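Input:
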Amino acid sequence: MKGKRLINISKVIGKYLFRVMTLLLATSIVAFVLVSLSPIDPVQQYVMGAGAVSMEQRETISEYWGLNAPPTERYLNWLSAILRGDMGVSLLYRQPVARIISERFINTFALMMTSWILSGIIGFVLGCVMGICQGKWVDSIIKRICLVLCSVPTFWLGLVFLLIFSVWLGWFPIGFSSPIGIADTDVSIWQRLYHLVLPALTLSFISFANVALHTRQKLIDVLESDYVLFARARGNDTWTIMKRHGFRNILLPAITLQFASFAELFGGSVLAENVFSYPGLGSAVSAAGLNSDVPLLLGITLFSTLFVFLGNFIANIIYGVVDPRIGEERPHGQAIGD
Amino acid sequence: MCHSNLPLLEVDNLSVSFRMYDRAFGQRDLKVIQDLAITVNSGEILAVVGSSGSGKSLLAHAVLGLLPQNATVSGRMFYKGKPLDEQNQRKLRGSEIALIPQSVTYLDPLMQVGKQARGTDKSPERMRRQRKVFQRLNLTRQAEKLYPFQLSGGMARRVLFSTAIITDAELVIADEPTPGMHLDQALEALSILRELADIGKGIILITHDIDLALQFADKIAVFYAGTTVEESPVADFIKGPGALRHPYTKALWHALPQNDFIPIDGFQPYAGNLPDGCLFAPRCPLKTPECEAGNPHMRKLRGGKVRCVHAT
Ligand SMILES: Nc1ncnc2c1ncn2[C@@H]1O[C@H](COP(=O)(O)OP(=O)(O)OP(=O)(O)O)[C@@H](O)[C@H]1O
Ligand code: SF4
Ligand SMILES: [Mg+2]
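Output:
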């Protein structure tokens, strides 16, 4: 039994590894082709503002960056840099891409996790409240707010928050992940948190509505189910029904949805980071795009693909572990009691 | 044992309609049950028979106050002589009146069935009772830990059955509890109901299987198109059509395989499209013009009740 299970698990892991490899390869090729087609000339961007630069100098830079090689060769060069582990050197920051990503990712990760947890909790609680009060005014008000929030663009909400809380009320700083002019090592955790609040709030405001509306619908379905009707027939009150049947049946879809939302979270953080000048991966990726910094752009693309894939992977695993109906064939079957 | 004169449950003149919305007619009320009447005494099994859609489950849900929001209920229902209003229903549900629901979808797909059978009561006594009932119904200790999807249809039915049996309810409403069970298991389940009746509880046994009803019940109520057409002692069914009262009941008797096995012509009318007079008139061989002057009243006849102007 145990050996069989191990084989099964390694099979599943093998399958996922294969998938992620092909996914990364495909993403990198598509991304590479797209940036190759970009009209922005990285050398031009680089020398802009550097005064007069002669044709020869440009040619040297171009040569130095390996831009003159044919596309396939450039792609393969970059691929070997990936395999070396440093992911190539960013044209913009003159540093290995791996290092930039690891530094910036900490900021982005803090931002995303804060808003991920916030939006998950707020969304779930509001969804439950709406589901329980379905059809009453509480439900319709919250539902309307959620529907509005669903259609609000991240950057716009970011600007509004910035305007209200930073410019008018002055409660929060206008940008960056730490105070300006203080060495990175001297920044306290509180200062970091302080700079995190507004972007995180923006990001979670954008995504909790989705979770809330989904949870609401799921809970309504559950509350209209036969098994809840039966629970009422047995004299259970609403709160008992929520505890025994409600959460049990809606938690799993909510968690899965939450993990599957990594992609939107990443997209949202690009915008939020730009609005708040927050130095994470999101602002780096737009800088890379605007300057045709191919290694950096590709690096971040690959990294975020991996990240989103991981989210979906975790969602699947959770479903398999928590839901008894998945990943287990009828173990005892008819042998029992029949 | 409580054999007072008051019936345990009395339902009189019950009607249920659903508010429906459709494009052609806008809002309208669809009356699916009218003039329904049954009486259950302590110590008795009342079998309720009738074809699909005749309103058997709706009666069960109406008694417990479980009909959906768009349903309107009128008529009178008494439990031990007290009117069954919303407040009373809420108090009695699960403690005094227990339901055995009709379908396995009434089990929570994500909860182990042992836990579901025991319900909210966490006492060791409850656990002991659940084990006893499971054992009697041929469900093993391992079965407690299974989820509904891991059960066969018959096992799930037995779990549903046990939910009501382990309570102390005075009135058990069993909505078709036996389909999917093996014959010996069905017999075992029904003899449990019989034992409960014998110690003074009242049972409503909704069933399609008249044969089983004949073996275990005391009285049979026959439903047709949302109304009761006859209520008679089981003995009359055994004696045959001569002892029965309503033309539909007689036709049902003739339709039984061990009798003539002759099916009844025609179809039960659909709610919203009911005939004006007697609901059985379109299919009735004894129909006269009098039959179409309104739905006949339920009247007492030879130790039973019947809704037919010509019954003797
Ligand atoms: N929520 C509802 N809305 C509208 N009509 C309904 C609703 N529930 C039941 N009905 C109708 O009421 C009638 C009686 O239904 P009921 O479930 O009581 O039948 P039944 O006698 O239990 O049948 P079966 O033997 O198939 O279980 C049916 O015609 C059904 O279509
Ligand atoms: S009232 Fe008339 S139509 Fe109705 S069952 Fe009796 S004889 Fe038949
Ligand atoms: Mg039914």
